[in-house]
Amino acid sequence: MVATINPTIEFNFSSFDRNVNTTTTNGSAFSDNLDMVIRLALIVILFITMLSLGCTMEISKIKHHLTKPKGVAIAVGAQFGIMPLTAFCLAKLFQLGPMETLAVLICGCCPGGNLSNIFALALQGDMNLSVVMTTCSTALGLGMMPLLLYLYSQGFSNLVQYVPFTGITVALIMTLVPCGIGVLINYRVPQYSKIIIQVGLMLMLISCVVIGVLAGIFDGGKLFTVLSPQLIATAALMPLIGFTCGYILSTLFRMNAPGRRTVSVEVGCQNIQLCSTILKVAFPAEVIGQLYFFPILYMVFQIVEALFFIVLFRCIQKLSPSQKETQVHTAVERAAEETNGPSVTYEGTLQCL
């Protein structure tokens, strides 16, 4: 007996297959276009952010700190010493996967970001040191970041082959060019620097929300794969360890109080825009997946923890007497002692009487 297929049913199945293929093709094209938009947006945001960072730099201040490089040397050494080691140890501790480990290492090896300048200002730190440290870490990152990634990736089996050294170097050069343009603008036409800085900071904060919405549309529920307990713990601990170790190290080298607070926030704050751009642009989408959101998760904890330290610092300031009040009180006591004699002698005389 020979089985026959109804031509009408066969036609319906063929139409269904064509509709599924057409829908899949259209969805894939939309995803590719949206992915390209996110990549270009990250590059533009990185350019504007680094341009605004360059506008905060003054050549005279850079020269002044380079002639007395103790503070800068301590700060830069802490930046490229503490954070990469912290990222390496946390990846080992939580037993992260290869690509998760690489995302965490790239974030840990990045130079300092411009959010640290805002935090240093809020903590009444050394603003000149903050700006110069960000400048030096950005310039040194061109050599230090690939070197540190190569060294620390040796601690994981076959991880070094996944590191896109060429893409990372290109991204770092992309940061130096707008940064240099910003320095030139601040030197030639400083009246425009404040506008560029304000626009850059606003764009940096708004862009995180916009890119998050676009990526949510693009990736759907897959975005929550980044929010694994191990990655959340890593993103929370990295800035906290950076803030704490930066303060301890600067204290051991006997830096003054504003310098200690500055080194602390500079070590804990990473260049999130650079890290996100590297993860999104230097890696294929099917390899990196949604892990380019890890730097944004890091930034959230970085801001929350920095705000906690700022509030704590302000509370301590209000509860403790100010330095001026202490100096005035000491001067009044000395004047009274010179006029009436020491208070202890006076009390002893009363007791004798």
From TrEMBL:
UniProt keyword terms in alphabetical order: Cell membrane, Glycoprotein, Ion transport, Lipid transport, Membrane, Sodium, Sodium transport, Symport, Transmembrane, Transmembrane helix, Transport
Topology class, membrane: Multi-pass membrane protein
One GO cellular component, as annotated: plasma membrane
Compartments in which it is found: Cell membrane
InterPro entries per UniProt: BilAc:Na_symport/Acr3, Bilac:Na_transpt, Na+/solute_symporter_sf
Domain of life: Eukaryota
Major location category of this protein: membrane
Catalyzed reaction equations: taurodeoxycholate(out) + 2 Na(+)(out) = taurodeoxycholate(in) + 2 Na(+)(in); glycocholate(out) + 2 Na(+)(out) = glycocholate(in) + 2 Na(+)(in); taurohyocholate(out) + 2 Na(+)(out) = taurohyocholate(in) + 2 Na(+)(in); tauro-beta-muricholate(out) + 2 Na(+)(out) = tauro-beta-muricholate(in) + 2 Na(+)(in)
Signal peptide (UniProt feature, chain positions): none
GO MF entries: bile acid:sodium symporter activity
TM ranges: 36-59, 71-95, 101-123, 130-153, 165-187, 199-218, 230-253, 291-313
PANTHER family on file: HEPATIC SODIUM_BILE ACID COTRANSPORTER (PTHR10361:SF40), SODIUM-BILE ACID COTRANSPORTER (PTHR10361)
Record function comment: As a major transporter of conjugated bile salts from plasma into the hepatocyte, it plays a key role in the enterohepatic circulation of bile salts necessary for the solubilization and absorption of dietary fat and fat-soluble vitamins. It is strictly dependent on the extracellular presence of sodium. It exhibits broad substrate specificity and transports various bile acids, such as taurocholate, cholate, as well as non-bile acid organic compounds, such as estrone sulfate.
Similarity comment text for this entry: Belongs to the bile acid:sodium symporter (BASS) (TC 2.A.28) family.
Protein name (Swiss-Prot/TrEMBL): Hepatic sodium/bile acid cotransporter
Annotated organism of origin: Phoxinus phoxinus (Eurasian minnow)
